[in-house]
Amino acid sequence: MKVTYYLEIFSSWCAWAEPTWAELKARYAGRVEFDWKIALMSPGDFPASRDQCDWVYRRSGGTVMRSPFKLNSGWVEPARKGVYHAPNLVAEAGRDFGITGDELRLALAHAALREGRKIADMGEAIAVAAKATKLNAKKLRAASESQSVKSRVLASTAIFHDHKITQRPAFILEDPIADKAVFSGLVRLEPLTATIDAMLADTAAYAAHAAHWGPVPKQ
Question: Which of 35, 67, 92, 96 is deepest in the core (most CB within 10 A)?
């Protein structure tokens, strides 16, 4: 089966979901295929000021997640009017250089949400990415600003919306027997593991039946 994680680099809820994502990958290694895709937030989804952002962080990190640390709102730039695409493009561009894991996008998220760096600026995002991956900054920037990378990001964002969901993180669980489960906005481990276990069990049961009885009779 496959689990697809839809995320936005600047999303604080995606930051809170990262331990869950890491645990899922470790727990089901070799049994489940994992992938992440960008789902850009709309301009209206972003805070209009640092004060507004800090209010959200106090609710999510402090009240809900009981985090021992506070996220940093220094990345917020009201003049951008909610256009913060750069780090998402850089994370996607990393795939063109063989970086399909989590390390690049996590470095970008850490720079923004923990250090408050203004990585909505492409130059700043590239500096973070190049340091984290040792990739050539000039080549990475060219890829990040290419139409092909932009098209991939827009396409994955469109697929996210096709699921009729609005909250990130989102996890789409699919198995070979055409079952699908959609989680939007949840960051806790337990509902995901319970569903994955159920889907794996059902898939195994179908395989066992096929081994004993063969394919469906034509008549």
Answer: 92
